[in-house]
Amino acid sequence: MKRVLVALSMGASVLLAACGGSSVSTNPSTGAPVTSAPVPPPAALQGTGATFPAPFYDAARFAYNQKYSQVTVNYNPLGSGAGISALTKKVVDFGASDVPMNATELTAAGGADAIVQIASTLGTVSLAYNLSGVSNGQLKLTPKTIAGIFLGTIKNWNDPALAADNSGVSLPNQAITAVHRSDGSGTTYIFTDYMSTVSADWKSKIGKGKSVSWTPGQPGAKGNEAVATTVKQTPGAIGYVEVAYVLQTNMTQASLQNHDGKFVIPSPEGATAAASQYLAINPSQFSIVDAPGPTSAPISGYSWLMLYKDQSDKTKGTALVDYLDWLVTDGQQYAVNVHYAKLPANIVKDDIISLKTVTSGGSTLLNVPAPS
């Protein structure tokens, strides 16, 4: 998006760009803002956190460096809990989480007014499985059977409850290995938020959170990639994984029964359909699980980025907001390329408005017009 070393010899036109000579127009087909971005100053930016959006962040930061070689962005996908912790300790420039910071976390970071939180991408969680002879989408799972598997009441793949929903599918007499996240995870929050919404039994026994107390004896793995790998290497296994990991590695995933009773294979299009049902999204009201609509993917959610509103280093702060502005506008093409959904236009506008509140020494750092 915006920043670059301004060489004296490049003249007034570049100086204008570096000072924020930019404009915002609207894409006539999508309604999303299209920015003519200022050139960013040189900086090395560091972020850490959620594994859910990591494939998008990796593709985007590489593309950004190709466009603006004076800016490097490093991202370490250690999980949402780690991202919030690192930001709070001020050892990174931005943190990432699939669930916004809550009141306790915000207080630890200096208060709600100290932090800016923006939605960065949109995705959905799938239930990936390793069952010989059961092809992609052939296995059908309902809220009741998903709860039974992860609560440990459904122990075998040929359990009558699964057989009843999968007429014509040859389910083996094989033990189920239900794999969960072992780290503080925003993907876990989205999954358990969904399960708590659709299952009273789940809500009372496990509840929702980035970390929960799982059924004893079930294996855990750290990060989306590790859960995916464990499922692929374990016959009879099933685990909840961001759909980008499933599609990129050709895993098999279940068809999930959504709010309307339709069985859908999780996809970026299903995430977009779910998000369209919830227009008023913000860091306090962010859940889009169990969305109505015949094509809605039921376990969908946004991923979020957090940064301090007051930046002590003006140059680095400018580079940071320029990068994030690009990420939620032009950079969304790289989300689509790796199986995430583009942010809705109203969310992009909210993001830009939030980024324009970031300051250093009292000066606004993002020099683009406020979207209308």
CATH topology of the largest domain: D-Maltodextrin-Binding Protein, domain 2
Measure the end-to-end span: 19 Å
Number of helices: 14
Strand share of the residues? 15-25%
DSSP strand tally: 16
Number of domains: 2
Supply the CATH architecture of the largest domain. 3-Layer(aba) Sandwich
Mean pLDDT: 91
Q: What is the CATH C level class of the largest domain, in words?
A: Alpha Beta
How would you sum up the major sheet? 9 strands, mixed
Low-pLDDT sequence parts = 1-23
Give me the oligomer status: single chain
Q: What is the gyration radius calculated from CA atoms?
A: 21 Å
Instruction: Look at the structure and name the CATH superfamily of the largest domain.
Output: Periplasmic binding protein-like II
Helix content: 25-40%
Order of helices and strands: HEEEHEHEHEEHHEHHEHEHEEEHEHHHEE
Question: How would the global form be characterised?
Answer: elongated
Query: Structural class, from helix and strand content?
Result: alpha/beta
Structure description:
This protein has helices at 11-18, 54-67, 80-88, 103-108, 143-151, 160-165, 186-198, 200-205, 224-233, 243-248, 268-275, 314-328, 332-337, 345-355; strands spanning 23-26, 33-36, 43-49, 71-76, 94-97, 115-129, 140-141, 177-181, 220-221, 237-242, 252-253, 255-257, 263-264, 300-308, 359-360, 363-364. With 372 residues, it is of the alpha/beta class. The strands form four sheets. Strands 3, 4, 5, 6, 8, 9, 10, 11 and 14 form a nine-stranded mixed beta sheet that branches. Strands 7-12-13 form a three-stranded mixed beta sheet. Strand 3, helix 2 (54-67) and strand 4 (71-76) form a beta-alpha-beta unit.
